[in-house]
Specification:
Layout: E1 2-7, H1 19-22, H2 27-40, E2 44-49, H3 53-61, E3 67-71, H4 80-89, E4 93-97, E5 119-122, H5 127-140
Parallel strand pairs: 1-2, 1-3, 3-4, 4-5
Helix pairs in contact: 2-5, 3-4
The protein binds 1,3,4-trihydroxy-5-OXO-cyclohexanecarboxylic acid.
Residues 10, 71, 73-74, 76, 97-99, 101, 108 line the site of 1,3,4-trihydroxy-5-OXO-cyclohexanecarboxylic acid.
């Protein structure tokens, strides 16, 4: 099986971006851990980061994956286009947030994405991505 992991805007700055909120791991560190775990579980993993909404929509529309893992970052709270793309492809998807979006500013509590994904992991740091990788085969066969 194949997973696609999408990281949204500003996540390329992880490690230096608000480390008190997002931790000290860089995106490369996180991607290495995702790939290592996927290999162990015999899952093919592709990772992609973009700061552009349209590029994220294009990536979601690809037919090259079975399960989507996505941290839409700030687009979580604004993007009907990303929500519609996930709904349109109709494949299992897991929404991941490094921080607990329900515990922060009011505007972060609303996710346009959560209504179209299989589940959401929020507030467990980079570990959330690894839990999502582990869950992927289970939600695919459901
Ligand atoms: C985030 C939470 C969002 O509110 C924020 O805009 C991000 C990162 C997280 O991973 O905690 O950029 O998705």
């Amino acid at each position: 099986m194949k997973i696609l992991v999408i990281h949204g805007p500003n996540l390329n700055l992880l490690g230096q971006r608000e480390p008190d909120v997002y931790g000290s791991m860089t995106l490369d560190d996180i991607n290495s851990r995702i790939k290592a775990l996927a290999k162990e579980l015999e899952i093919e993993a592709a990772v992609f980061q973009s700061n552009s909404e349209g590029e994220i929509v294009d990536a979601i529309q690809q037919e090259t994956y079975d399960v989507l893992i996505i941290n839409p970052a700030a687009y979580t709270h604004t993007s009907i286009a990303i929500r519609d793309a996930i709904a349109a492809v109709g494949r299992p998807a897991i929404e991941v947030h490094i921080s607990n979006i329900h515990k922060r500013e009011e505007f972060r509590k609303r996710s346009y994405i959560s209504g179209v994904v299989t589940g959401q992991i929020s507030g467990l740091g980079a570990e959330g991505y690894l839990l999502a990788v582990q869950a992927s085969p289970k939600i695919l066969n459901k």
